[in-house]
Write a structure and sequence with these properties.
Blueprint lengths: L12 H9 L4 H13 L8 H8 L6 H18 L6 H15 L6 H13 L4 H12 L1
């Protein structure tokens, strides 16, 4: 099942949802991310869509976790990355710094490390060294 056709120039339904996330409240934002995850096999993101999702990496932990799942699926399974890769790296490194000492957020750390590994970023080794000393 694919997304229904839409008029030329109009954003697709997933793109409309992604745009709406930035003005939505926390609960609606989480619901939109869940909807996008459910349809991950049929949704094709553009690099600009992924840039917008990257912008969610400084939100509350549940939003960060869901955004990382979408970004991870796009990168690791479909080979699609955000257009602004340097911003993507910065945001992923920020996620590591923000959550590294919170043992309850290991899923977030794992997802960020996987994506940074995909990008061959040295922050992966730094995080592994940090974890080796503490966990």
């Amino acid at each position: 099942m694919s997304d229904p056709p839409h008029s030329p120039g109009a954003p697709s339904e997933p793109a409309s949802l992604i745009l709406r996330m930035h003005t939505a409240g926390p609960d609606e934002r989480i619901a939109i991310l869940h909807d996008l995850l459910i349809r991950k096999a049929t949704v094709c993101y553009t690099p600009d869509d992924l840039d917008r999702i990257t912008g969610l990496l400084d939100h509350e932990p549940r939003v960060v976790e869901l955004a990382l799942q979408i970004l991870g699926n796009a990168a690791l399974k479909k080979g699609m990355l955000p257009a602004d890769r340097s911003r993507f790296r910065e945001k992923l490194r920020y996620v590591l710094q923000r959550f590294r000492s919170d043992g309850s957020q290991r899923a977030i750390i794992r997802s960020a490390v996987h994506l940074l590994g995909y990008l061959c970023d040295p922050a992966v080794l730094e995080q592994l060294a940090y974890d080796a000393e503490r966990f």
